[in-house]
């Protein structure tokens, strides 16, 4: 089918030309396959992409609304359509881009949740209540994510050669194949050293892997496992509300800026392409002297 083969070509293109990550590729694939399923149910199978009009896409967006997708999810799917059809237009596969007039739902921008430094330390201590290879791994992982502001996908992709405990730095391959070297705090470095020296060897078993953070079976740790362990330790630490590994990244950015760190250094450490993204983490104090994002 032309629809699916063209989507495959698009995904291969953004992977090779833009260095899109595996997660980005999967997200685009899911969104575009959903569109194809809709087109298959409403149009003849041999309909070319050039016959997919703005009206058809608007009807598709309306269907998403009727299926109770949130505005932010629909906006993301519309953005994927715009990128895809722009690619089709550049390659002459459509004479007119139907997404140029396709409107995206308005999304109210919510500021990220921030933890206080005291809450961050409670989270770390929760991971150290029981002395075991897994707890040493989890403490090191959480410490590294917070200290470096890494995304989960970046942290679980760290390899042994990326770690320099003499210099207290880690090398990170970020989005779009952008590589950066990030300093570790003394606390994160100590936790990482303890894990590498006293726990990782026991977890590797007979497998051969150079990933830093590994599962009990000796393989690469998954994103889902990191989300689960973060929630588990947050509950044990008595930290209320929804908390994800990305909360640590948000909080680290705010804490660094609040302590007077240069905003461009923070931008570099976090791997933000746009300085405006980093600026949103500039915090202020509320009436109870708690950290809140600058734009809230």
UniProtKB/TrEMBL annotation:
Domain Core-binding (CB): 1-89
InterPro entries, per database record: CB, DNA_brk_join_enz, Integrase-like_cat_sf, Integrase_catalytic, Integrase_recombinase_N, Integrase_SAM-like_N, Tyrosine_recombinase_XerCD
Biological processes per GO annotation: DNA integration; DNA recombination
Coiled coil: none
UniProt entry tagged with the keyword S-adenosyl-L-methionine: no
Origin superkingdom: Bacteria
Xref: Gene3D superfamilies: 1.10.150.130, Intergrase catalytic core (1.10.443.10)
Pfam families assigned to the protein according to its UniProt record, in alphabetical order: Phage_int_SAM_1, Phage_integrase
Keywords: DNA integration, DNA recombination, DNA-binding
UniProt GO MF annotations: DNA binding
Keyword DNA-binding annotated: yes
CDD domains: INT_XerDC_C
Domain Tyr recombinase: from-to ranges: 110-295
Alphabetical list of NCBIfam families matching this protein: PRK00283.1 (NF001399)
Protein name: Tyrosine recombinase
């Amino acid at each position: 089918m032309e629809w699916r083969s063209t989507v495959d070509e698009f995904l291969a293109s953004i992977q090779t030309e833009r260095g899109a990550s595996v997660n980005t590729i999967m997200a685009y694939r899911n969104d575009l396959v959903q569109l194809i399923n809709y087109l298959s149910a409403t149009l003849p199978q041999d309909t070319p992409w050039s016959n997919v009009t703005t009206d058809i896409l608007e009807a598709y967006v309306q269907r998403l609304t009727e299926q109770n997708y949130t505005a932010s999810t629909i906006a993301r799917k519309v953005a994927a359509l715009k990128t895809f059809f722009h690619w089709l237009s550049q390659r002459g596969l459509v004479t007119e881009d139907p997404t140029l007039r396709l409107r995206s739902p308005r999304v109210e921008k919510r500021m990220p949740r921030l933890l206080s430094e005291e809450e961050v330390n409670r989270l770390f201590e929760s991971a150290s209540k029981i002395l075991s290879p897994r707890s040493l791994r989890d403490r090191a992982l959480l410490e590294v994510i917070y200290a470096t502001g890494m995304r989960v996908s970046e942290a679980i992709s760290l390899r042994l050669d990326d770690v320099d405990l003499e210099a207290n730095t880690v090398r990170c391959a970020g989005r779009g194949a952008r590589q950066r070297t990030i300093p570790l705090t003394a606390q994160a470095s100590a936790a990482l050293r303890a894990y590498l020296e006293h726990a990782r060897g026991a977890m590797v078993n007979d497998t051969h892997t150079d990933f830093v953070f590994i599962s009990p079976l000796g393989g690469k740790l998954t994103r889902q496992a990191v989300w689960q362990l973060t929630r588990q330790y947050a509950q044990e630490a008595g930290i209320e509300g929804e908390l994800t590994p990305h909360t640590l990244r948000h909080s680290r950015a705010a804490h660094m800026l609040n302590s007077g760190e240069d905003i461009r250094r923070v931008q570099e450490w976090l791997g933000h392409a746009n300085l405006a993204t980093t600026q949103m983490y500039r915090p202020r104090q509320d009436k109870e002297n708690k950290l809140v994002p600058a734009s809230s």
